[in-house]
């Protein structure tokens, strides 16, 4: 746990993220669009189609701000942030989606 009070864990690529969520269901997911092996927006689409996982909020992040909004919308993500964001922006986005 860190100073924000949230516990975080990660995955090295999209496939590992899929496996990890099946073992330990998170309250929220933050996915980089350009993950190795499977892009974050593709992972988001899979989660949003799953009956048990579809209500988990997903925030997409990417350095490619030109396509980020479209990718978030098409994947069903609940929010997005372009890289270069301040830590406070991420915390605010998390608070917005975790009630």
Helix content: 40-55%
Query: Proportion of β residues?
Result: 5-15%
The arrangement of helices and strands along the chain is HEHEHEH
Assembly level: single chain
Radius of gyration: 13 Å
Tell me the span between the first and last alpha carbons.
18 Å
Number of strands: 3
Q: Name the average pLDDT.
A: 92
Based on Cα principal axes, name the global outline.
Answer: globular
What about the largest sheet? 3 strands, parallel
Overall structural class, as computed from helix and strand content, comes to: alpha/beta
Please report the number of helical segments.
Answer: 4
Describe, in plain words, how this protein is organized in 3D.
The protein has 99 residues and is of the alpha/beta class. Helices cover 42% and strands 13% of the residues. It is built from 4 helices and 3 strands. It has helices at residues 14-23, 40-49, 65-75, 87-97, and strands at 29-32, 58-62, 79-82. It has a 3-stranded parallel sheet, sandwiched between helices. Helix 2 (40-49) runs parallel beside helix 3. The chain is globular.
């Amino acid at each position: 746990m860190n100073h924000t009070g949230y516990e975080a864990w990660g995955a090295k690529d999209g496939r590992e993220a899929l496996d990890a969520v099946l073992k330990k269901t998170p309250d929220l997911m933050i996915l980089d669009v350009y993950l190795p092996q499977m892009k974050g927006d593709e992972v988001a689409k899979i989660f949003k189609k799953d009956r048990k996982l579809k209500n988990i909020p997903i925030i997409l992040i990417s350095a490619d701000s030109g396509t980020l909004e479209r990718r978030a919308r098409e994947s069903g993500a609940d929010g997005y942030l372009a890289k270069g964001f301040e830590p406070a922006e991420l915390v605010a986005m998390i608070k917005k989606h975790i009630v």
